[in-house]
Amino acid sequence: RLRREGERDPPTTPTGAIGHAKCYAAIPDAKQKNQLWTRYLQISTLNLHDISASMASFHQRHPCQRHLLAPYVKLFFKEVRRVFRCKHPHLALQFWEQLFPLHRVANSSRTLARTLRLIEALGEDEKLLRRVALDGYDELLRAHACREMCWVQSGTASLPQEEQGGDLSDLEDTD
């Protein structure tokens, strides 16, 4: 439907292009998500309006997209150092701000562990990434604490095991 609408009324204005990019990125299709992810890793231009809008819509919180987006959490941590080394700082910051898996609070223990491992692995020359990773870690830690507090206030002792991240054995990278 989006493709037909784009043909009928092409997104010729900046606002139209941004809206089209957001809608396209939000579609729950594995092939499309993979194409977008590849595009995000290949960007080299500073004209970020449409790519930033697309990145902002990539992670959808809808339950039907949870499994579709799960592989991109690991890919994010695999690629983020290269992005910060090879891309303009503004592009790298957009990559972090839009694609850091903060939305996965339900699995925040895993994301916290991955973020902490990233921070610990950073060298002295990776100051910008260290700063944003520490900020992301703190933000995720606060979100996790708020979620835990809500569970406690609701009369539940703590988050269910699957909400805490459960088995962390998948943290081992095989590459």
Walk me through the structure.
The longest helix has 27 residues. This protein is globular. It has a domain of 76 residues. It is an all-alpha fold. It has nine helices and no strands. Helix 6 runs parallel beside helix 8. The C terminus is likely disordered.
Could you describe the largest sheet, including whether it forms a barrel?
none
Query: What is the arithmetic mean of pLDDT?
Result: 81
**Percent of sequence in beta strands:** under 5%
Supply the helix-strand structural class. mainly alpha
DSSP strand count: 0
User: Shape from CA axes?
Assistant: globular
Keywords:
175 residues, disordered C terminus, globular, mainly alpha
Describe the SSE topology.
Blueprint: H1 2-8, H2 14-26, H3 30-42, H4 49-58, H5 66-86, H6 89-99, H7 108-121, H8 127-153, H9 161-164
What is the compact description of this entry?
By secondary structure, the protein is mostly helical. 69% of the residues lie in helices and 0% in strands. Helix 7 (108-121) packs antiparallel against helix 8.
